Write the structure tokens for this entry.
Amino acid sequence: MLGGWLDEQINKLESKLFQEEINLPVAGKKVLLQLPVAQIAFFARLFVDGKLLNGLSLTELFDFISKNFSSKKQSVISPGSLSKEYYSPEQVTAGRVRGFLLDMVAYINRHFFPLLAAGIVLNHF
């Protein structure tokens, strides 16, 4: 009888964890990226083309992303949709990602190279 009650209590606690009623990190929880799938795939392509991922096949990369990330509009990203967007990026997608990267470089310049950022601003006028 006690064993049954303990099993029931354990199941209730596990259920609460997986339903995110308790604010603890749960294994298997996906990271929400505020990007559409096309931009996630484009970032993946930049990592692959930039040789930042060593020894990882594209299939493994698409599986990893689909298991660990969700997009701003899709909670489930399929490896097939990533593959499609990876191999056929649109210029609009490239432009948006380029904008993100330029913003990131500007952030680095402001926070880590303030004299460089000031020099760029002074030379601009």
Q: What stands out?
A: Residues 94 and 118 are 28 Å apart (CA to CA). The chain is about 65% helix and 5% strand. The first strand starts at residue 31 and ends at 32.
